[in-house]
Amino acid sequence: MTEPDNEPTSDAPNDRYRAPALDKGLDILELLAEQPQGMTRAEIVKAMGRSPSEIYRMLERLVVRHYVTRSQEGDRYALSLKLFVLGHRHPPIERLVTRALPAMDAFAKAAEQSCHLGIYDRGNITVVAQVNGPSAWGLSIRLGVRVSLADTGSGHVLLAFQPETRRALMLAEHVALDGEVPVGATELQAILARVREQGHWQGESQQAFGVTDLSMPILDSHGHALAVLTCPFIRRIDRHVGADLDTVRGLLKQATQGLSLA
Predict the structure, then answer these.
(1) Which of 67, 81, 126, 251 has its CA at a distance of 20 to 30 angstroms from the CA of residue 88?
(2) What is the DSSP letter of 113?
């Protein structure tokens, strides 16, 4: 049964093609955008002056489509990061990749290591650019692969350099990937604090032996991470003399600082 159209009529040109259901959904999104701590359903109903049944149906659809998140207790609703992700998709990503690739190429040649660029995407990280080092040895990540937000250097860096409310939403949207190593909330907070203090992540890979992950943020003008550049450092043990870990870390820092807006 079609929901009755109780919207007031208007002769304004902008109201020529009216879609009341769509308007209700957009009204909810705009309302929640002003409430970083979220709102209860009753608060949304009161603020919008609509019937509880109308708001309930619309909220449920927005939750199903991942535009809105519901608290574990089920009583509060908040915007997810889906609109943020949609707003930063293809054209901005293409511009970021186009700008980043020359810096990534220069890093890979100087460090003789591979590197990859990741962005936040639907609860985890998507690799949007990857450059191999010039030597015969190296670890590369396939373009387009999804990487865990919770147990990787890339994820720790992206989480560490976010406002608290956005970080909470990112973690709420996170879905564990195959093979992911669980990280407790207390441990994760300690890791993120250390990353913020150091300005980067350095540590043994949780996915492969013999690899040291180096991850650094590409920051916007507010100091928040737009993306993360990661080098899976592999130490040569033959007679070839290449850049050591400290040198590679310095080169990665140089690349990310050159790409950052902060």
Answers:
(1) 251
(2) S
Q: Number of structural domains, the chain? A: 2
Q: Is residue 140 part of a domain?
A: yes
Task: Give 132-180 as a 3 state SS string.
Answer: CCCCCCCCCCCCCCEECCCCCHHHHHHHHCCCHHHHHHHHHHCCCCCCC
HEC letters along 15-78: HCCCCHHHHHHHHHHHHHHCCCCCECHHHHHHHHCCCHHHHHHHHHHHHHCCCEEECCCCCCEE
pTM to 2 decimal places = 0.70
- Tens of pLDDT along 168-190? 999 999 999 999 989 999 999 99
Q: What percent of the chain has pLDDT over 70?
A: 91
CATH of the domain at 236: 3.30.450.40
Q: With H, G, I as helix, E, B as strand and everything else as coil, classify residue 91.
A: helix
User: Do 147 and 20 share a domain, yes or no?
Assistant: no
Q: What is the pLDDT of residues 84-133, one digit of tens each?
A: 777 656 667 888 899 999 999 999 999 999 999 999 998 999 999 999 99
Let me know whether 162 and 64 are in one domain: no
Say yes or no: 22 and 72 in one domain.
yes
Residue with tokens 């489509």: 65
Q: Mind listing the pLDDT tens digit for each residue in 24-42?
A: 899 999 999 888 788 999 9
